[in-house]
Amino acid sequence: MIDSLLIANRGEIARRIIRTAKRLGIRTIAVHSEPDENMPFVSEADEAVCIGPANPVESYRNAEAILAAAKSTGAQAIHPGYGFLSENADFARLVEANGLVWVGPSADAIAAMGDKIKARNLMAAAGVPVAPGTQDPVASEDEAVTAAATIGYPIMVKAAAGGGGMGMAVAGDEAALRTEFAKVGAFAQRMFGSGDVLLERYFPRVRHVEVQILGLADGRVVALSERECSVQRRNQKLVEEAPSPAVDPELRRRFLAAAVKAGEAVGYRNAGTVECLLDPATGDFFFLEMNTRLQVEHPITELIHGIDLVEEQLRVASGEAPSFTDVPETSGHAIELRINAEDPKRFLPGPGQVTTWVEPSGEGVRVDSGYAEGTTVGMSYDSLMAKLIVVGADRDEAIARARAAVAGFAIAGPKNNLPFFAELLENDEFLSGDYDTAIVSRMR
């Protein structure tokens, strides 16, 4: 097993990784920006190194500074968490070139899945269902219009190098397509360094369902179970639950089989997620993307399977067998609520100093938090402050525990979206389980 681990991240995911590493007897090293000096993850690590100012480009995205910290502290391995450099193939190669263990999939797998066009074509060749769309980057507005005539409107215009719900727009006709094509291309070039755009059929009523996979050290790829991620604002997830209320045993079998095919197509190792769109009217699903890292919502899978996914990641990276012989069966129902520093109506950022922070507790309640009283939520990083996770014997019990936990979570200082969750947990559409990715817009 790895004996020392540098966590190239911050906030709740850094604390989450540190917790498992310490349980396994692994020495932990935190890297942090200057304003993060007093954050909980820094004090909880065995060692800490300041790697630069607030701007992530100069700190959490600064590969040279992170590698220098690893060398100065004698770290054996680097865990990237999610975001920042977690899906950067060049960084993964650099880590290994410097003789360190990369806790994640191979750089080749990251690169293959990082370009949506290449990923889409690779999945289609492997027999994974993909939505009707383009196989190559669309070179011009006129070419986009010609392709759309074959695919059919409405059209999703997507940045080929995008991820996490960014760089996407919907066009209902030719005029909108011409406008959105130019906007998405410019955004993609600015944000991702590539202006390549692809087109896919847009499904007005769709659910977002994903499957957790693990590529094991012996070469096998296993699928755990699915997660429902359809409660979103601006294509960004707010709530996840597992198992999905839309997935019956036969559909689950198809989902898991497709996810294994996807992992095997790139020789996947470590934890990853195969994201799909599900047409609830037909039961058809289509590959969306593969996230080559640990997901924000991984705790709900842990709770229904009774495993620690960070431990499994470290086992794979160490060349060890998983903690289980057969994939554990699921038990119960889990829900995760992303507690963000944003106003609960328009979801606009609301940073500030935390003057009150009281976490809920009780049976089936887990809080993975990045902040505490006295810390400050700034504008330089993601607005996620904590993840409120609950598990119950069934969905009804999980929802009841979520309601109580939301009521018992006290935050003052930054704005927060707890009132939105209180509203959602009483919403008839959500309670029925028959909802889709437009549920938040209908609530607003």
Model description:
It is a single chain. The protein has 444 residues and is α+β, with helices and mostly antiparallel strands. The protein has helices at 11-23, 40-44, 63-73, 89-97, 107-114, 116-125, 141-151, 174-192, 249-265, 298-305, 309-317, 395-407, 418-424, 428-432, 439-443, and strands spanning 4-7, 27-33, 47-52, 77-79, 101-102, 155-159, 168-171, 197-201, 207-215, 221-233, 236-242, 270-279, 284-291, 333-340, 352-353, 356-358, 365-369, 376-377, 384-392, 410-412. The strands form five sheets. Strands 13-12-9-10-11-14-19-17 form an eight-stranded antiparallel sheet. It holds the Pfam family CPSase_L_D2. Residues 1-444 form the Biotin carboxylation domain. Keywords: ATP-binding, Biotin, Ligase, Nucleotide-binding. Its EC number is 6.3.4.14.
SSE layout and pairings?
Layout: E1 4-7, H1 11-23, E2 27-33, H2 40-44, E3 47-52, H3 63-73, E4 77-79, H4 89-97, E5 101-102, H5 107-114, H6 116-125, H7 141-151, E6 155-159, E7 168-171, H8 174-192, E8 197-201, E9 207-215, E10 221-233, E11 236-242, H9 249-265, E12 270-279, E13 284-291, H10 298-305, H11 309-317, E14 333-340, E15 352-353, E16 356-358, E17 365-369, E18 376-377, E19 384-392, H12 395-407, E20 410-412, H13 418-424, H14 428-432, H15 439-443
Parallel strand pairs: 1-2, 1-4, 2-3, 4-5
Antiparallel strand pairs: 6-7, 6-8, 9-10, 9-12, 10-11, 11-14, 12-13, 14-19, 15-18, 16-20, 17-19
Helix pairs in contact: 4-5, 7-8
